[in-house]
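re: ur question from earlier - yeah i can do the single chain one, its not a big deal. heres the input i used so u can compare w yours
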Amino acid sequence: MNSAIDVRIIGVIESALEPRVEQNGPPAAKIYLPSPIEPETALALYLRSRGSATELAQPVRELVNRIAPRVPIVEIGSLDEFNERLYATQLWMARAAAVLGVIGLLLATGGLYGVSSYVVAMRSREIAIRMAIGAQPREILKMILRQSMGMAAVGLLVGGGAALAVSQLIQSEYHGIQKIDPGAFGGAAALFIAAMLAASAIPAVRAARVDPVANLKDG
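and the output i got, formated as tokens:
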């Protein structure tokens, strides 16, 4: 028995809103058929609205009851709410990674601050001598900042290289993920540099304010 039927394509839609991450190749193509041809046990209705799902719940129920009174409405919610349940594990892992990133940045900031402060304390006599023979406070400030940011640059290069390697690994496992996101990498680098600059600024200012007379006299 030949079960083939003639259908007419009435349109092509954009990529689906479902943020699925497929392994082993691109997502499979989908075709939407009328329910008499391909009956479904459950249907999903997507609506675009400026309001919240709560505001639309009652009007949607009234509309469905008016068109098909026997059709039960199981659930109404926003796409974000459904994704929150469908991809709870993935979202949790992404948020955990973000928290770990923030903790790592705080640790790096505190570490650079501690190292810079220690260097300034150890070189206080040297700084005092430099200022006694004519070095200006701004020159001392630039010297300490340059040395501190040098250490930060090494960390940025090592961390950036590791991030690139991990991104390539992820891209090889999941289809549709860019190897390099310039915006993400640029923003992360800018945030790191700003944090490192703030961490090294306090010790540098402290070094620029060293009193050479008092420091050499105590030495």
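Helices lie at 53-67, 79-86, 88-122, 124-132, 137-173, 182-208, 212-218. not sure if urs matches, ping me
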